[in-house]
Amino acid sequence: MDSSLLFVNKTQTSRILSRSKAGERSAILSHVQSKRRRHEAETSQISKPWAGFTTTLSKSEASEISETVEEKLTFFVDNDDLTARSAKSLAVNKKQKQQREAAEKRLSLAYASSKSLSKAMQPSYNASDPFHCTVANLDAGTHAILHITFSHASRVNFLAESFAPLSTLLQHAPMRHDRMFQLRLNRCVEDQKLMYSTLAYGSSLLGWTMGRFHSSKQPEYFLDKALRAVRVYLSTPGYVVDDWLLLSMYGLAITEMWNCLPIMWRQLPERHAMASKQGSRGFSACRMHLKTLLQVVDDAGGWERFDPYVLDSVILADKFMAITSRKPPVIPATWDPGPLPFATLEECGITEEGLLTILPRLGTGFFQEALSEDLNHTLQDLVAYCRIASTVWSYSSTRPDTEGWLFRQSQSISYRFLIYALKQNANYLERCTSLASLAFILTSIPARGPQMSAQDVTSHLFDLLQEEQFLEEKVNMSDGLWFWLLFMGCVVSEPSPHRLWFLERMTDYCDGGEMTESNFEQRLEPYLFLPSRQGARISAVLEYLNSMATGRWNLQETL
Prior knowledge:
The chain is mostly helical. It has three domains: 1-11 and 19-46; 57-80 and 122-325, no CATH class; 344-558.
């Protein structure tokens, strides 16, 4: 007899022929449910149309990678905050585990049997592409890299570059590019060039922050696919120039730059050796991508046609490449925001008289130095910027346009110092002052990239201080400016082979006795120094200086 049918026999004892007894109803419902479950179990084993494009990524693995990268990138988070977050994470994981165990107990036999199916048929942890139908095909399993790329650690870089205080960075507060972060992530599902360029970016980021690569796929694997996808797109007649094309080209540029920086790959000796041998080839590739991107933008009508997130990203890549390669930036500073609008000043309650009361000694020492008018103007713009940023970020919330101005103004001032430092016809005193000012900006930004770039700047400063022309001009320099230059040379947080040289020359200012933090700060405040930024490094510098000075003084007494 056909088991798919259920026969219910009615007899004279049935009160109403159209209504079954309780036992009959139970048998009918049980039959219907069993039939449905058998059908679902059978159909679940049939290959789906998208099955050939799926892969497996466990939620625990992706979460582990994302959380570890976030901790490494946001190194400025204090221990108490990390402990609280870890405890909270453990509690959440424990609760989730209990919920999963309870749910598994309620699973029917039919559903339990379906768990034996290939995991490739059960894609997970991908909100933007739940079935892994992405154009990246089998590489979709590396979507964990995408979540790293768009994690909190990456987002706060824009805030840090805007001189936001540490408290703001730790709040996970919304920022002006949140919408584009999500749109870019979703777009990766259907855009091959954007997917692969973002995976290349994320793979490199994962490598130099954690010392390993996801699924053993190194950045070059994705770079090759991304480059081919971009070339095919640009060779297609009538192609559209949009945000996604520019972000794809940006991904190529920033990855090429990262891959040729030995300092980024200390945790991976083989990659470190490869980056050292590669030399300037990576910079050439990065510069080529940026020049092509700029040409595409110009042909399309300028940066105004695209989302500000694109330009902000490109500015950072261009700035870091120029600093490390010691060449002028590729992107012209046509995006300079100019002065903060008067209406914004009024809204924030900022007046010129009020600004002078904030950090009153900041930058006053430069008035006594023989510096050009152009350099002095840039220095005073930086002083005004520090005062405005300190005032604006003191409010509980900041408008997106003001936040955008703070970011662009910081980059514009950095560009101006960098270009001035690279001028061959400028005197060495002014070039060194420009580099030290740029080091001040970078060491004021609590993010890994700027801290590493600060080491490149101080290395360049060290080279200039060895030049004979600088030694001739040094006679016109005040002791205060020289002390500040030396301090900015050794204040970088990243290990530097030149730090000892700067420290040894600062011992002359200890006068055979101990120097306190207060009088140390008094020497620095007339130039560029923020206690909340560079102040944390003073204790380590003083400890070394006092030990050296004491040893030298004891040696002189013995002699």
